[in-house]
C-alpha cells in the first residue's frame, strides 16, 4: 500500500489496493463521522457530549480534533453523525431557518422548533442525506429538552439520546447507568464515561471528549483531553 | 376523472388549477393534503421502523394495539414511540413501517383535524373518510414510486357501527373484523380469528373484556416470537363513549424455561 502519493496516478493505484483490514474504501469513501454523540437532559439543563474524530473509511483519521457539537443558537446545540458534508449542509440550513424564526417571532427560538425544522429537512431530503442529529437545549417555554433525529427524519423527544457508530457500543452502559433525576455533575460524568467507553471500542470514534453544558444561564463548552478522559478496563 | 377528496383545502386547490389535468389535481391533492411539497423524496428503504399493529372489533366498539418500539434494523433504538394516534372521539389510526413516513402522515392528519375544528360546523371526520384519504394518498404516492413505507390500521365508529380497516404501502386496503400488519399477520391474526369465530359460533360478538384480553394474548405471543418487538404496548379502545388509550406491559410467562433441560 503506497504511503506517499506524488501524482494522481499514484492515487488511482491506491484505489485498487486493499487496506490491511481488507477495506477497499481506504481513502475514497466519503468523509464520515464515525462518531459518538450523546445528550442527557436533567432538571435544569442539558449536557451534550461527542468525540472529535472524523474518518475516511474506518482507517484514516482525517481530522482528530473536530468540533461536532454545532451551535444552532445561544442555548440550542446540535450533535451530528453520519456523512460530514451532509451534516454541515443540514446544520447551515437549520441555523439560518432558526435564526429567521427568532427574528420573525422576536423571541428566543424553542428547541422543539429547531428539532422540527431539522426533522422536516432530513425527511424531505432523506434519500440524499446520511446524517443523524441530536438536538439539545434549553428554552424558557419547555425548559431543557433533548430530541433525536435518526437517519430518515423522524423526530422523537427523549431524556437521553445517543447516536453515531460509537453509540452501539454503549447502549448497554446507558441502559444500566442512566437514572432520571441526576444532578449536573452526575450527568457530566455519565456523558464523559459514555463517550470514553465508545471511543475505546469504536475505531470511528476518538480524539478528545467535547462537552457542552446548557442551562438557563449559559452554554459552557468543555474539553476532556488525554489524561482527563475517564479510564476503564482496557484488557 | 377527479378522485373523491375529503379534504377541504384540496377542493380549493383543485378549483384553482386546471381541472382537466389529473396529474395536477393529484399533485395538488398530495401537496395540499400532505402539507409537504413534491420535494419529498422516495422512501427507498425504511430506516426507523415499527413492527406489528393489531385490531379487532367487539360488541360496541373496536380495539387496536401497537407496541412502543422503533427499530433501527435489528437495534431496538427508541422504546417510547407511540404508533397509535387519536384523531378525534371516533377515530384512531395506528401505523407500522417507517416511522418518519408515519410522522409525516400523522402531521398531515392532525392538520386536517385542526382545520375541521377551526371550521367549527360540528362535522367530525369519521374513520371511513380517513380510510379513504389514506388509501388514495398511499396509492397515489406509490404510483409515483414515492411510497409511504407504512401499513396503517384505521379504527373507529362509523355512524355508531364499528369500523376497522387496513391500508398498506401499495394503497391496497380493506375492512375486516380483525386486522393485523407485519408479523402480527402470521402470528396474531389466526388467534384473533379463532377467538372471533368461537364467539360467532354461539351467535354473539366478543365483549370488550374479551377483546382486550385477546389483544394482550396476541401481544404476548408477538413478544415471544417476534424478535423486533417490545414488551410494552399502547392499546386504544373506541366505543360510543369515546377513545381510551393506555400503555400496558406484556405479562410474559417463562416458567417453561425450568422444564427445558437440554440434550445432555
How many strands, which pairing sense, and closed or not: the largest β-sheet of chain A?
8 strands, antiparallel
Euclidean distance between termini CA atoms of chain A: 30 Å
Radius of gyration of chain B from CA coordinates: 20 Å
Assign a percent range to the helix content of chain A: 25-40%
Helix tally of chain B? 8
Largest interface: A-B, 19 and 24 residues
Strand-residue proportion of chain B:
25-35%
Which shape of chain B, going by the Cα principal axes?
globular
* Quaternary structure type: heterodimer
Binned strand content of chain A: 25-35%
Largest sheet of chain B: 8 strands, antiparallel
Q: What is the strand tally of chain B?
A: 13
Mean pLDDT of chain A: 85
Low-confidence runs of chain A: 1-19
Describe this structure in words.
- The complex is a heterodimer of chains A (235) and B (264).
- By secondary structure, chain A is α+β, with helices and mostly antiparallel strands.
- Chain A is built from 5 helices and 13 strands.
- In chain A, the strands form 2 sheets. In chain A, strands 1, 4, 5, 6, 7, 8, 9 and 10 form an 8-stranded antiparallel β-sheet that branches. A 5-stranded antiparallel β-sheet of chain A has the order 11-2-3-12-13, with helices on one face.
- In chain A, α2 packs across α3 (111-124).
- The longest helix of chain A has 22 residues, at 84-105.
- The two termini of chain A are 30 Å apart.
- The relative contact order of chain A is 0.19.
- Chain B is α+β, with helices and mostly antiparallel strands and 264 residues long.
- Chain B is built from 8 helices and 13 strands.
- Chain B has helices at residues 8-16, 22-34, 99-119, 127-143, 184-187, 189-201, 208-225, 256-259; strands spanning 48-50, 53-58, 61-67, 70-72, 75-78, 84-88, 91-98, 150-158, 161-167, 173-175, 178-180, 232-239, 242-249.
- In chain B, strands 1, 4, 5, 6, 7, 8, 9 and 10 form an 8-stranded antiparallel β-sheet that branches.
- In chain B, β8 and β9 form a beta hairpin.
- In chain B, α1 (8-16) packs antiparallel against α2.
- In chain B, 44% of the residues are buried.
- Mean pLDDT of chain B is 85; it is low at 1-39.
- The A-B interface holds A 119, 122-128, 148, 150-156, 158, 168, 171 and B 36-37, 39-44, 46-48, 70, 72, 75, 77-78, 80-81, 98-100, 102-104.
